[in-house]
Amino acid sequence: MTSDGNNRKNVRNGKPPSHPSHNSHASHDPDRLLPPRGDYQTLLSFQKAEVIYDITFRFAHKYLSRGDRTVDQMIQSARSGKQNILEGSKAALTSKETEIKLTNVARASLEELLADYRDYLRTRDHTIWDKDCKEAQYVRKLGRKTPQTYEDYREFVETRPPEVIANIAICLIHQTNYLLDQQLRRLEDDFVKEGGLRERMTRARLQYRNQHPS
Hints:
Blueprint: H1 5-8, H2 44-63, H3 69-91, H4 96-123, H5 134-143, H6 154-159, H7 162-194, H8 197-211
Helix pairs in contact: 2-3, 2-7, 3-4, 4-7, 5-7
């Protein structure tokens, strides 16, 4: 957390930063039958999704009415975003199709959560911060820190009013969705170039037959 007290007062939301693409597994030899599976915890998209879940869990229980169905809906959407990034990365070992599918589910879940935060602000006549305001720029700067953890945002969540926290969450969702879009483009390109497990198995069989003719 920055020591600049003035900057802390200016925390708001904005457009996601231009982070480099993060893949769910390391680059590998396309001829290898089972590519190595990456550690999902090193994915910036997963780290940000986990922060979003931690913020949303606290926000929903503190600022939404008990019995409001939105509480469970927001928490479930946040959890789905986080868990599907995790499961997609783990599925990469055997199925690139499944990894793409689960990453898309994560993206859709976070988009649903984004709408809930926007609804919260709009229905209470709060401002959704402009992407170019100084608060937005500060959050974007904070979002460039790696790794991302809830501790980077804890003070804001515990001391700022709910409209500020909601805008911070919106900013983080934009950032995470940007990263997921980059991941999906890379995954789809890799799938077109390398195929899935079936294609790799077929190539391996053909290669074996060519090397060991009967």
